[in-house]
């Protein structure tokens, strides 16, 4: 069996950062396993191609369980199955969330403790400062000319009393402004581009694509390697020091469960031997959610700008007093986002009402011991009454913005929800904000140093370890988790 010092499972937002930072140390041999293929699809690299990627070969294309609060609908979850993971499929929006978000993550994860890692990973186009870094792997842009409609919606929010915030990643995210984006020279800057491509020729880092991990190899209570499938054959590799699972909020818990790490009764139901009874694996699943407000345009909407995606303006807002951070994050598009049951003109635009501090908690579970069997995924959208109230407030806020004078030259009739009852519109149109977290949470599944409880030599590092989701897009925090994990592994090996 081949032996590496560290085996990393998953080349996504966190896994690419883990592998690259460890491979910067010439003393460590690192193997990175990615279930998907190389990132050769041109739509990955074109910021305007984001929607063309969904449902394609680079997408896991999950469907969640029927949602009781959504009329039994099963929303689609696009997730990256390619080098760069979901950073190769996402909207390229770079948001850290409110500093207070990290207080819920436990010792060692307060905002002052994670801020140096955010700065380390960043190459900010405005340069370094108290809240930003320059020269890091990930290019983040803030100084660009926005689309006219995106700019008008931001102006409408300011007119309605929201502060203009030129930097949502500084002291406070609250207010309206333009998104910071992971775009470099007009192309998506995924973690494959940022972390892996500059180091892919280093002999200490080996990357294997189309290599899907099927189980962890255990020796007693120590993880010693990974079994994976590639080209129709099973392979086994050994890790002399550590295995780091960075397969994402859906695939990381699946791998742990298939390896006997999870709720003992559930594992036995599928004939799996129990290595460690960890009931938290797969629990605590939660996600941000979006609902569209679509408005017909009074005049032709200009085409998309080269090198930008259509959603590059946003608003952070608190629906009620007493919150430690915003709970609403509408995202603004200069195109209409009609679903399969909607019709309307091409000249229209969308204000997506988003909730980003959900109280609802769901779970995922195996349906079989077969690694290729579909999972049961239940995010429990809007199960908590507070989430329903928050989404209603978010939709009403977006509707109000369309009546501002700043949008007068653009905003025609409201197409959706129009005259439909709001709760019915929410039930019929709610979709994921693509920010699923929590299924291997710190505290219940891993400790504050990301080590799986009861097992030596095994860590999890991705969005699944977040005990509570950040109040904003999750790509930046996931990369930060990968950066921190690499330091933790190196420190442990060195000691």
UniProtKB/TrEMBL annotation:
SUPFAM superfamilies for this protein: FAD-linked reductases, C-terminal domain (SSF54373), FAD/NAD(P)-binding domain (SSF51905)
Pfam families: GMC_oxred_C, GMC_oxred_N
Entry keyword Aminoacyl-tRNA synthetase: no
Regions crossing the membrane: none
KW Transit peptide (keyword) present: no
Cofactor(s) the protein requires to work: FAD
Keywords: FAD, Flavoprotein
Signal sequence extent: none
Domain Glucose-methanol-choline oxidoreductase N-terminal: 80-103, 248-262
UniProt similarity note: Belongs to the GMC oxidoreductase family.
Name of protein: GMC family oxidoreductase
